[in-house]
Design brief:
The chain is an alpha+beta fold. Helices cover 38% and strands 8% of the residues. Helix 3 packs across helix 9 and helix 5 crosses helix 9.
Amino acid sequence: MARYTDAVCRLCRRAGVKLFLKGERCYTPRCAVDKRRKPPGTQTLRRRRTSDWGVQLREKQKARQIYGVMEKQFRKYFAEAQRRPGMTGLHLLQLLEERLDNVAYRLNFADSRSQARQIVRHGHIMVNGRKVDIPSYRVKVDDVVGWKESSRETGIYALMTEDIPRRPLPTWLSLDVEHMAGRVVSAPEPDEIDTGIDVRLVVEHYSR
Protein backbone atom coordinates (compact mmCIF):
# COMPACT_ATOMS: atom_id res chain seq x y z
CA MET A 1 0.00 0.00 0.00
CA ALA A 2 1.39 3.40 -1.02
CA ARG A 3 1.78 6.31 1.38
CA TYR A 4 -1.25 8.62 1.59
CA THR A 5 -0.61 11.77 -0.46
CA ASP A 6 -4.09 13.29 -0.65
CA ALA A 7 -5.32 16.24 1.45
CA VAL A 8 -4.57 15.34 5.07
CA CYS A 9 -7.40 17.51 6.39
CA ARG A 10 -9.77 14.85 5.06
CA LEU A 11 -8.27 12.39 7.52
CA CYS A 12 -8.99 14.70 10.45
CA ARG A 13 -12.54 15.30 9.30
CA ARG A 14 -13.12 11.58 8.80
CA ALA A 15 -11.80 10.82 12.29
CA GLY A 16 -13.90 13.65 13.74
CA VAL A 17 -10.95 15.00 15.77
CA LYS A 18 -7.82 17.01 15.10
CA LEU A 19 -4.84 14.80 14.24
CA PHE A 20 -2.55 17.86 13.95
CA LEU A 21 -1.23 16.79 10.57
CA LYS A 22 -0.87 20.38 9.25
CA GLY A 23 1.23 21.81 12.06
CA GLU A 24 0.46 25.35 13.19
CA ARG A 25 -2.58 25.63 10.91
CA CYS A 26 -4.42 23.16 13.14
CA TYR A 27 -4.35 25.75 15.95
CA THR A 28 -5.94 28.49 13.81
CA PRO A 29 -9.52 29.15 12.61
CA ARG A 30 -8.40 27.89 9.19
CA CYS A 31 -8.43 24.31 10.50
CA ALA A 32 -10.77 22.19 8.36
CA VAL A 33 -12.16 20.36 11.41
CA ASP A 34 -13.36 23.65 12.92
CA LYS A 35 -14.67 24.99 9.61
CA ARG A 36 -16.48 21.84 8.50
CA ARG A 37 -17.65 19.53 11.23
CA LYS A 38 -19.29 16.97 8.92
CA PRO A 39 -17.03 14.11 7.75
CA PRO A 40 -16.27 13.94 4.00
CA GLY A 41 -18.44 11.85 1.73
CA THR A 42 -22.12 11.58 0.93
CA GLN A 43 -24.30 12.73 3.82
CA THR A 44 -27.38 10.70 4.65
CA LEU A 45 -30.20 11.38 7.07
CA ARG A 46 -29.67 8.12 8.93
CA ARG A 47 -26.35 6.42 9.58
CA ARG A 48 -25.92 2.79 10.48
CA ARG A 49 -24.38 2.22 13.91
CA THR A 50 -20.65 1.55 13.67
CA SER A 51 -19.73 -1.97 14.76
CA ASP A 52 -17.20 -2.68 17.50
CA TRP A 53 -14.75 -3.81 14.82
CA GLY A 54 -15.31 -0.55 12.94
CA VAL A 55 -14.61 1.50 16.07
CA GLN A 56 -11.41 -0.46 16.70
CA LEU A 57 -10.32 -0.11 13.06
CA ARG A 58 -10.91 3.63 13.09
CA GLU A 59 -8.79 4.04 16.23
CA LYS A 60 -5.98 1.99 14.71
CA GLN A 61 -6.14 4.06 11.53
CA LYS A 62 -6.06 7.23 13.60
CA ALA A 63 -2.87 6.08 15.35
CA ARG A 64 -1.25 5.23 12.01
CA GLN A 65 -2.19 8.58 10.51
CA ILE A 66 -0.95 10.60 13.49
CA TYR A 67 2.52 9.02 13.40
CA GLY A 68 2.63 8.56 9.62
CA VAL A 69 3.28 4.83 9.79
CA MET A 70 2.29 2.32 7.12
CA GLU A 71 0.25 -0.78 8.00
CA LYS A 72 3.10 -3.28 7.69
CA GLN A 73 5.37 -1.20 9.89
CA PHE A 74 2.59 -0.58 12.39
CA ARG A 75 2.03 -4.34 12.70
CA LYS A 76 5.74 -4.80 13.43
CA TYR A 77 5.51 -2.23 16.22
CA PHE A 78 2.52 -4.04 17.67
CA ALA A 79 4.27 -7.43 17.47
CA GLU A 80 7.29 -6.02 19.29
CA ALA A 81 5.05 -4.42 21.92
CA GLN A 82 3.39 -7.81 22.48
CA ARG A 83 6.75 -9.47 23.09
CA ARG A 84 7.62 -7.02 25.85
CA PRO A 85 6.44 -7.83 29.37
CA GLY A 86 3.72 -5.55 30.69
CA MET A 87 1.01 -3.53 28.97
CA THR A 88 1.05 -3.97 25.20
CA GLY A 89 -0.72 -0.65 24.56
CA LEU A 90 1.80 1.35 26.58
CA HIS A 91 4.76 -0.29 24.83
CA LEU A 92 3.14 0.41 21.45
CA LEU A 93 2.82 4.12 22.22
CA GLN A 94 6.40 4.24 23.51
CA LEU A 95 7.74 2.64 20.34
CA LEU A 96 5.88 5.19 18.23
CA GLU A 97 7.00 8.12 20.38
CA GLU A 98 10.65 7.00 20.23
CA ARG A 99 10.78 7.37 16.43
CA LEU A 100 13.32 10.00 15.39
CA ASP A 101 10.82 11.99 13.32
CA ASN A 102 8.45 12.16 16.30
CA VAL A 103 11.26 13.22 18.64
CA ALA A 104 12.26 15.99 16.21
CA TYR A 105 8.63 17.13 16.19
CA ARG A 106 8.38 17.00 19.98
CA LEU A 107 11.57 19.08 20.25
CA ASN A 108 9.91 21.77 18.09
CA PHE A 109 12.34 21.22 15.21
CA ALA A 110 9.29 20.98 12.91
CA ASP A 111 5.66 22.10 12.90
CA SER A 112 4.28 18.63 12.11
CA ARG A 113 5.45 15.03 12.08
CA SER A 114 5.37 14.92 8.29
CA GLN A 115 7.62 17.99 8.17
CA ALA A 116 9.92 16.40 10.76
CA ARG A 117 10.08 13.25 8.61
CA GLN A 118 11.18 15.34 5.65
CA ILE A 119 13.81 17.18 7.69
CA VAL A 120 15.24 13.87 8.90
CA ARG A 121 15.25 12.36 5.41
CA HIS A 122 17.10 15.37 4.05
CA GLY A 123 19.90 14.73 6.54
CA HIS A 124 19.46 17.80 8.75
CA ILE A 125 19.28 15.86 12.04
CA MET A 126 22.07 14.24 14.02
CA VAL A 127 21.93 11.71 16.86
CA ASN A 128 24.92 11.65 19.20
CA GLY A 129 26.98 13.63 16.68
CA ARG A 130 26.21 11.34 13.72
CA LYS A 131 23.84 12.11 10.84
CA VAL A 132 20.75 9.90 10.82
CA ASP A 133 18.37 10.16 7.87
CA ILE A 134 16.00 7.34 8.84
CA PRO A 135 12.71 8.70 10.27
CA SER A 136 11.92 5.38 12.00
CA TYR A 137 15.27 5.32 13.83
CA ARG A 138 14.53 4.60 17.48
CA VAL A 139 16.14 6.91 20.00
CA LYS A 140 17.23 5.68 23.43
CA VAL A 141 17.60 7.28 26.83
CA ASP A 142 20.53 9.75 26.95
CA ASP A 143 20.63 10.12 23.15
CA VAL A 144 21.27 13.70 22.01
CA VAL A 145 19.27 14.87 18.99
CA GLY A 146 20.30 18.08 17.24
CA TRP A 147 20.79 19.88 13.94
CA LYS A 148 23.69 19.14 11.64
CA GLU A 149 26.23 21.98 11.69
CA SER A 150 25.97 22.71 7.96
CA SER A 151 22.17 22.80 8.20
CA ARG A 152 22.30 25.72 10.63
CA GLU A 153 22.96 28.04 7.70
CA THR A 154 19.82 27.02 5.82
CA GLY A 155 16.49 28.81 5.66
CA ILE A 156 14.60 25.87 7.15
CA TYR A 157 16.78 26.03 10.27
CA ALA A 158 16.13 29.76 10.71
CA LEU A 159 12.40 29.21 10.22
CA MET A 160 12.10 26.22 12.54
CA THR A 161 14.19 27.65 15.38
CA GLU A 162 12.43 31.02 15.49
CA ASP A 163 10.55 31.54 18.78
CA ILE A 164 11.40 28.02 19.90
CA PRO A 165 9.82 26.28 21.76
CA ARG A 166 6.44 27.03 20.22
CA ARG A 167 4.76 24.04 21.89
CA PRO A 168 5.09 22.60 25.40
CA LEU A 169 7.97 20.14 25.70
CA PRO A 170 7.20 16.71 27.24
CA THR A 171 9.10 15.97 30.42
CA TRP A 172 10.80 12.90 28.90
CA LEU A 173 12.77 15.29 26.64
CA SER A 174 14.99 18.27 27.45
CA LEU A 175 15.98 21.04 25.04
CA ASP A 176 19.11 23.20 25.01
CA VAL A 177 17.84 26.24 23.11
CA GLU A 178 21.30 27.79 22.86
CA HIS A 179 22.77 24.79 21.00
CA MET A 180 19.47 23.61 19.47
CA ALA A 181 19.95 20.09 20.79
CA GLY A 182 17.61 17.88 22.78
CA ARG A 183 18.27 14.95 25.09
CA VAL A 184 16.09 11.92 25.76
CA VAL A 185 15.76 12.01 29.55
CA SER A 186 13.54 8.95 30.04
CA ALA A 187 11.04 6.71 28.31
CA PRO A 188 7.74 8.47 27.52
CA GLU A 189 4.95 7.90 30.04
CA PRO A 190 1.26 7.51 29.07
CA ASP A 191 0.18 10.79 30.70
CA GLU A 192 2.77 12.65 28.61
CA ILE A 193 1.43 11.41 25.26
CA ASP A 194 -1.26 13.84 24.12
CA THR A 195 -2.38 12.11 20.91
CA GLY A 196 -5.71 10.99 22.37
CA ILE A 197 -5.32 7.44 21.05
CA ASP A 198 -7.31 4.77 22.89
CA VAL A 199 -4.68 2.02 22.69
CA ARG A 200 -7.12 -0.45 24.27
CA LEU A 201 -9.13 -0.39 21.04
CA VAL A 202 -5.97 -0.86 18.95
CA VAL A 203 -4.94 -3.87 21.01
CA GLU A 204 -8.44 -5.34 20.73
CA HIS A 205 -8.36 -4.84 16.95
CA TYR A 206 -5.17 -6.87 16.51
CA SER A 207 -6.22 -9.46 19.10
CA ARG A 208 -9.39 -10.54 17.28
